[in-house]
Design brief:
ten-stranded antiparallel sheet; 4 helices; PITH1-like; PITH domain-containing protein; Galactose-bd-like_sf; globular; Jelly Rolls; about 10% helix; PITH_dom
Amino acid sequence: MEVVSGCEELRSSSHGDPRRAEEMACLHDHSCEDHDCSSDWSLYKHIDLSKVNALNESVPGSVKSVFKAWEQRLSSSGEHLESNEGDPELLVFIPFTSDVKIKSISIVGGADGTSPSKMRVFINRDGIDFSDAQSMQAIQEWDLVENLQGVLEYQTRYSKFQSVASITLHFPENFGGDITQIHYIGLKGEATQLKRDVVATIVYELTPNPSDHK
């Protein structure tokens, strides 16, 4: 597997299941101020934040608070995404303002067993619920580790994460807490130059209108 420059290769545990391929995470060993990680690859500015939503969040709309610039990922404003008590499962839907290619995903969870321990991902599947997520084949999944300092990124199978209009993250379980907490979700990759609504307008304009030829 390819290792991102400036990162060490780590592999998540497959918990003894030979069907689960080990996935790669990378550990930053450089200063992001010097390497400008955020502006290079961050997709934060390409998230359609007004349409982001989560299922089983204890405070409606709180999911929007976990999307922020890379350098602010550990800022403690008190806002975070939290599941309802006694039910650690979360489902987060993230649409983009333009199609993107996703290289990696970073998750900063809560302490005391409240960090998610597993992540499953679906792309371009709007409106799925927990029943759908549990029965559908994810495009990729990871066993997570507690990443309280925000230094880990989970690498995608990049060829499968092209032309992504939306991504849904399924967190089915945590490290034993009564609730699941997420303080930061970071996505890195590349975005197309044209927004999807602009592309749609161009396609519309190129479609012949019979009334124009009367």
